[in-house]
Amino acid sequence: MGMPWVCVVPKLPTLRLMGLIVETLDPTDAYAQRRLKSVDFSLAGYAISGAKLKSVAAAVANGRIGVEVGDTGPNFAAAYTVGANRHFTLRETKSVQDDNWRSQIVHESIHAAFDMEGIRPPNDIDEAVAYLGETVWFRAGGLGRVVTAPDAAAKIYGAASALEARLDLHSTPGQRLTRDQAQDLIAAINGHPGYAPSSAQ
């Protein structure tokens, strides 16, 4: 799930949202392409890559993944629903489509990529890959990131940033991370009230 402080412009048509998602996941300019390509790692055997995110863009463009504006609950600004009725849900509040907004699209699209492959990681690994993936994407842009969020969410982003920086994932693609390497991130995820601890390890 995405960042609770980043939301969607009110009344933005669904088609426009679809276009913004596709532009984020299948960009045409070299800078944005480099950022997507940097998302290339695996955690506990679950791999994500820019190519897989591009496949999500294609699924949004041809309607295999839907997009709606609706309630995402008290903790998150975006959500992804798996299965036959797979779709993104984006909360309708005031904001702009900046890098924070785009990073939550990267996050939810990692869930979508696993779903499209028929892969079901344990919840904490699924979320860890998504948080780490959006962090890699953000850092590959060469931009600073200011996290303003409730304590539980801030701990997740802090742990993801620390892990990304320690391994330099954005400039060293193809790394295979173990669960132990991501233990601080996983602990922060399982400590968040919006996530139920995973029972299957």
Description:
- The protein is mostly helical and 201 residues long.
- The protein has one domain.
- The protein has seven helices and six strands.
- The chain has helices at residues 14-25, 30-38, 50-61, 99-116, 123-140, 151-167, 183-190; strands at 41-43, 46-48, 66-69, 78-81, 87-90, 175-177.
- The protein has a three-stranded mixed sheet with strand order 2-1-6. A three-stranded mixed sheet has the order 3-5-4, covered by helices on one side.
- Helix 2 (30-38) packs antiparallel against helix 5, helix 4 packs across helix 5 and helix 5 packs across helix 7.
- The longest helix is centred in the middle third of the chain and has 18 residues, at 99-116.
- The chain is globular and about 40 Å long.
- Mean pLDDT is 87; it is low at 1-11.
How are the secondary structure elements laid out?
Layout: H1 14-25, H2 30-38, E1 41-43, E2 46-48, H3 50-61, E3 66-69, E4 78-81, E5 87-90, H4 99-116, H5 123-140, H6 151-167, E6 175-177, H7 183-190
Parallel strand pairs: 1-6, 3-5
Antiparallel strand pairs: 1-2, 4-5
Helix pairs in contact: 1-3, 2-5, 3-4, 4-5, 5-6, 5-7, 6-7
User: Radius of gyration from the CA trace?
Assistant: 15 Å
How would the global form be characterised? globular
Number of strands: 6
Q: Helix coverage percent of residues?
A: 40-55%
Mean pLDDT: 87
Q: Which residues form runs of ≥5 with pLDDT under 50?
A: 1-11
Termini distance?
20 Å
Q: Strand fraction band? A: 5-15%
Strand order of the largest sheet: 2-1-6
Order of secondary-structure elements: HHEEHEEEHHHEH
Largest sheet: 3 strands, mixed
- Number of domain modules: 1
Give me the number of helical elements. 7
